[in-house]
Design goal:
Blueprint lengths: L2 H19 L16 E5 L5 E5 L2 E7 L6 E9 L2 E4 L6 E7 L2 E4 L20 E4 L16
Antiparallel strand pairs: 1-2, 1-8, 2-3, 3-4, 4-5, 5-6, 6-7, 7-8
Length: about 140
Amino acid sequence: MPASASRFITLALIAGALAACRQQPSPTNNVAATPAPVLSFAGTGRDRLCLAGNRAAFITYAAAGDHNCSVRGTLAGATLTADGDAQCQVTVTRTGDSIRLGPIAPNCAYYCAAPASFAGKTFTRTPKPEPVTDLAGDPLC
């Protein structure tokens, strides 16, 4: 057998062995996870809040300009804990279609550009979901 044919067979065997060693994809479940519906709430002016399952976010603006407070995180009971900052917790009180935010804890002041505040802000559920975005237009929920 010519040397080139021998090399070809050797390469073919190596390629076959490597293909057999490759990890086969795991079977997937064809049932796609259904994302939680997004509920949106409007406050005064441009203030907005959204809920999606145990996720929540809000943005509130100062009376003039673009100074704002923006927090996104996990909602457990009546407490919204900011993503990546367990020390920032916001009290959230929901009554029917209305949500009221509690005072700004010192650990949450970082999320507000003075003179903006979220303390005591109230939001009412919108009839249809609306986009809730930050100042740059990126979605919060």
